Amino acid sequence: MQKAKSKVIAVTGVARGIGVTHFCIMMAYYLAKHRRKVALVELNDTGHFGRIEKAYEGLHHDVMSTETFSVKGVTYYKATSKEKLMDLYQRDYHYIVLDIGDGIKRHAEEHKRADIPLVIGHISEWKIHEVEDFRVRYSMLMTQRCKWLFPEGKKDEMSEVGRKIGMTFHKVPYNIDPFIRTKETQEHMKKIIGLEV
Q: Rounded distance, CA 53 to CA 63, Å?
């Protein structure tokens, strides 16, 4: 019997610091809580995963000596190369969540190839230009499968952003701790990835 292919979710942001890693942790933890084997892969150069490992394992833990670690049922892969990523695709995971961050220039093909490609944008009027710039610069990624995500805002603000970008989008639920599941987070995640979980 042939092994089922892992479902790949690739997440990028229109700018650095928009919350891609935070969202990826929420997504991975949501999937793990549904008894799915999940890999969360760092494809950006922020070093966030090393800091997460240090916070989880303790201040005296040597994060430089490990490539992976696990927290609450999710296996984290730190600073992963394209070669390691290809190997990872052959492993026995239900879901592989790619944290591309703002590294879309280097990982555009991975994003485009993903089963569920996601882009996180801004709701702020003074930052909407970053969304528009991203759409123009990476138009080849804007397939029917690509879903836009925005932090929650007022309903009229959300409608205005949707009209401006000419696409439908999903809300990113506010959750200060990505490891805590709320009913609201669960509902949003179902809408984003579908009901097949």
A: 7
Buried b (16+ CB within 10 A) or exposed e, 4-43: eebbbbbbbbbbeebbbbbbbbbbbbbbbbeebbbbbbbb
Q: Over the chain, what is the mean pLDDT?
A: 84
Amino acid at residue number 46 = T
Taking the C-alpha atoms of residue 118 and residue 173, their distance in angstroms, rounded to an integer, is: 15
Q: Which residues contact 122 (CB under 8 A, 6 or more apart)?
A: 14, 15, 18, 128, 130, 131, 150, 151
DSSP 3-state assignment of 196?
coil
pLDDT(126) > 80: no
Q: What's the burial of 73, exposed, middle or buried (CB within 10 Å: 0-12/13-18/19+)?
A: middle
107 phi/psi in degrees, rounded to 5: -125, 30
Q: Position of tokens 């990476």?
A: 138
Backbone angles phi, psi at 86, to 5 degrees: -60, -40
What is the per-residue pLDDT for 26? Answer: 93
Alpha carbons 70 and 56: distance in angstroms, whole number: 9
User: What domains sit in the chain, N to C, each tagged with a CATH number?
Assistant: 7-193 (3.40.50.300)
Question: Which two tokens mark 86?
Answer: 């290809």
Secondary structure class of 88 (helix, strand, coil)? helix
Instruction: Report residue 75's pLDDT band, with 50, 70 and 90 as the boundaries.
Output: very high
